[in-house]
Automatic annotation (TrEMBL):
This is Adenosylmethionine-8-amino-7-oxononanoate aminotransferase. The record marks C18 as: Participates in the substrate recognition with KAPA and in a stacking interaction with the adenine ring of SAM. GO terms for biological process: biotin biosynthetic process. Its EC number is 2.6.1.62. Homodimer. Substrate binds at W55, Y146, K281, S315, R401. PANTHER family: ADENOSYLMETHIONINE-8-AMINO-7-OXONONANOATE AMINOTRANSFERASE. Its cofactor is pyridoxal 5'-phosphate. Transmembrane segments: none annotated.
Length: 448
């Protein structure tokens, strides 16, 4: 069967995510027949480097044998069981290990990132309600934040392209400035921007903290904003402010957790512990949907009561799925056994080195890098740049999806020198080709 065969059937029956389907009249969908390591292969044998880790979920490459083996082994004993009133070994072991790694000893499970956001928002409000402070029912989120697409998550998301249409359905969060280090003026550094953003937050808290349950943020890197990176000093300061003004800190590490920023969790770089930690995406190495909200004793205890309604009566059918938890345990084993964080430091140095010719270019600015994420902004007046760049890269065997005019790389941790060289060379060639022939750039926006 050809690519054409599958893309036509897919167009007819699959409503693809984050997509204006009509654009697929001209833009092909790429049917993937198989994937291995960093490579995706289509039905005609073309291979693509997965430069975005399959929407930021894959950690160690596709088909990682130890994760596969763990899931297979689990399949032989228990695939899934209701988690209300029942439990099983993988969910207990995973909760214990995540608790030991984060200092947050109570784990509540969902299936997708957005459901983790919903869980954290609801838990925070419910905590204050249980304490007799139901008026603490508003949230603070950052300019350009992204926390998922369900209605609660969208109300703390500041990407108008995704949220504006649904504005009448949402109860918008209070927005505070992003500490995005690109805002630094001449003579300022990332810490200056962080402190200015924290001061703006303090202004809001000083006036409104009596009505605020929590501040939610993406630690160190605002992903969907276009990989906006910022100083850990911001997290450190927000932690102090949250304590001083008695509001929760929700750390959405759905994208940045599991080694993406160089440490297992991004909050570690600021030496802080959030009140709620949301995890998903990399948690199963990109194999199965699973999300988790971790919290501390003091919050858990506020729900522990004779009264049923003081309990957290939230659920998802697949909560704590045994296969997904086994995959997550295998992921933690791999971090330990292969010393992934140390190996990634080496990889990151290499890739930064390969990207030097990109960094040197006159037509890009704000080249930036945190852990296993790289990004830069392209000087282009064309709103269709992202789409054209995506296609130029694809023609060279690389899957890279710009966000607006920001090009970023978020490769699986199995990236080697040959892949790095190919990505870097293809990037320069694509930028050259589009600069020489801007007529190739059509209209339309690039979606993450
Ligand atoms: C992807 C993402 C989410 C939403 O996760 P889904 O699994 O897509 O629902 C939430 N927050 C951040 C920071 C993300 O990157």
């Amino acid at each position: 069967m050809s690519n054409q065969h599958w893309l036509e059937r897919s167009r007819a029956s699959v409503w693809h995510p984050c997509t204006q389907m009509k654009r697929h009249e001209t833009l092909p969908i790429i049917p993937v027949r198989e994937a291995s390591g960093i490579w995706l292969t289509d039905f005609e044998g073309n291979r693509y480097i997965d430069g975005v880790s399959s929407w930021w979920v894959n950690l160690f490459g596709h088909g990682e044998p130890r994760i596969k083996a763990a899931i297979r082994d689990q399949l032989d004993s228990l695939e899934h069981v209701i988690l209300a009133g029942f439990t099983h070994a993988p969910v207990v072991e995973l909760s214990e290990r995540l608790g030991a790694l984060t200092g947050l000893g109570h784990a509540f499970y969902g299936s997708d990132g957005a459901s983790a956001t919903e869980i954290a928002l609801k838990m925070s409000f419910h905590y204050w309600k249980n304490l007799g402070k139901p008026e603490k029912n508003r949230y603070i989120s950052l300019e350009n934040s992204y926390h998922g697409e369900t209605a609660g998550a969208l109300s703390v998301t500041d990407v108008p392209l995704f949220s504006a249409t649904y504005a009448p359905l949402l109860r918008n969060a209070i927005r505070v400035p992003s500490p995005d280090s690109r805002k630094a003026a001449q003579g300022e550094n990332a810490d200056d921007v962080a402190l200015a953003a924290a001061a703006a937050l303090e202004n809001v808290l000083a006036k409104q903290s009596a009505h605020i349950a929590a501040i939610i943020l993406e630690p160190l890197v605002q992903g969907a904003a276009g990989m906006a990176m910022y100083s850990p000093l911001y997290l450190e300061t927000v932690r102090q402010l949250a304590d001083r003004y008695d509001v929760h800190l929700i750390a959405d590490e759905i994208a940045v957790g599991f080694g993406r920023t160089g440490t297992l969790f991004a909050c570690e770089q600021a030496g802080i512990r959030p009140d709620f930690l949301c995890l998903s995406k990399g948690i199963t190495g990109g194999f199965l949907p699973l999300s988790c909200v971790l919290t501390r004793d003091g919050i858990y205890d506020a729900f522990y009561d004779e009264d049923v309604t003081r309990g957290f009566l939230h659920s998802h059918s697949y909560t704590g799925n045994a296969l997904a938890c086994r995959a997550a345990l295998a992921v933690l084993d791999i971090f330990r056994d292969d010393d992934i964080l140390a190996a990634n430091r080496e990889r990151a140095n290499q890739f930064t080195h390969y990207l030097e010719p990109v960094r040197q270019r006159r037509d890009i600015h704000h080249f930036r890098h945190t852990g296993m994420i790289w990004a830069f902004d392209v000087d282009t007046p064309h709103p269709g740049f992202g789409q054209a760049f995506f296609q130029a890269m694809l023609a060279q065997g690389c899957l890279v999806r710009p966000i607006g005019n920001t090009v970023y790389f978020m490769p699986p941790y199995c990236i080697d020198d040959a892949h790095m060289a190919q990505l870097a060379e293809a990037t320069c060639k694509s930028l050259d080709a589009l600069a020489d022939d801007p007529g190739r750039i059509g209209a339309g926006l690039a979606l993450p």
